[in-house]
Hints:
Residues 453-480 are annotated as: Disordered. It contains 20 helices and eight strands.
Amino acid sequence: xxxxxxxxxxxxxxAATAGLGEWVSRLDLxxxxxxxxxxxxLVVLDVVGVxxxxxxxxxxxxxxxxxxxxxxxxxxxxxxxxxxxxxxAWLNAVAMAxxxxxxxxxxxxxxxxxxxxxxxxxxxxxxxSSGDDTxxxxxxxxxxxxxxxxxxxxxxxxHPHGNWGVAGAAAGCARLLGLGPEACAAAVDTGAxxxxxxxxxxxxTGNPVRDAWLGAANTSGLAAARMASAGVAxxxxxxxxxxxxxxxxxxxxxxxxxxxxxxDITAGYFKRHASCSFTHPAADAMFELADGRPxxxxxxxxxxxGAGLSGVDWDNRLSAMFSTPFVVAAAALDGAVxxxxxxxxxLNDPGLRELARxxxxxxxxxxxxxxxxxxxxxxxxxxxxxxxxxxEVPNPVGDADHRPFGRAAVTDLLRRWLxxxxxxxxxxxxxxxxxxxxxxxxxxxxxxGVPAGPAPGGGCxxxxxxxxxxxxxxAPEKEE
Length: 480
């Protein structure tokens, strides 16, 4: 890290942000490895798909009605509706995150894609951008957000939504606007100067403002790019102040380390459980350990980042998603933790609550020592008959480093959750081919689909194979 004087002066942050701006402005999709472009398409498939799933929940449907926005050029994924781009960026981001199903990245310590993809896609729909420009802008949004996530060490209790990721949204929108190196750097720096200081307990106590932070990140990124386009933005290294001096620590050297050779998008994870990612290894372990016998007690040992998710007093979907005891109990009793897990009545099921109260969550030093490459969890189950079994999972299933998901697995998950084969088929085609389209506007608007009611509840794959492999049966700084 740097000393306080260096942080406050912002000089290293100015230079690093300038380097990022030059890279963003010159990012040429033809020079990007094919595997990276393929992974980008897979991330688009995932996050747009889960946005469509989320948009069909009752609360997101009510939110759209409350917005009373006019029709516009950008799709509201999965709803049959279109909106102005700022509205679409905000509502799609919130829908993308509301079920805790969107792609994430353990090295960024959060979710780079949802911080910027809604803004970039809305802007691309309005401008009817070319496919290669749209893909380059999405890739810039992800890589810049991930680098700011690596560079930022948030203070104890701070939530990562809506702070370091704003710079990624700004970068992607600036690239799509065709801004030059200095203007791209100014957009990134301006985005870094518009962070939200949200508390992690807003999530664990079930306050949906946690989702709103992502809507704000996307609209702030749009605003930053517009300011740069107008010539009223500057690169002063403000990230060292906003993300460093105010919100924690900031290491600008992370912004350019391996730039153009290390692609963080290839190191992310896809989710098969509708819950905070720190709960996933415990759920994966329970699929292996739950064999139909009555369970007397469960101990979940995890790293320090996940040890605080121990609450047993959830009172809505969001707070349950951040309760490892809830997720473990649901995995044991239902064999799945999907959108249907939060259906009416299930949250207050007496049997589920009773089992959750017998789940303890503790931090284990040996597991903490394996961060960040592994987010390991060890689960010990003592059965009512006195038998004890232990399972350890190094990373969530679906992580790039542990039984990674390919296109077939992500498509299978979305098909179960979305219940709309026509929309999913169009999305699958778009995610494979959009980078080669001469224009993306009409194809993007096609992803709004047709008006539909709530999708039928579908479970996560547990007994069936996923990409050829059967699935495994309060912190200083956190992600989801």
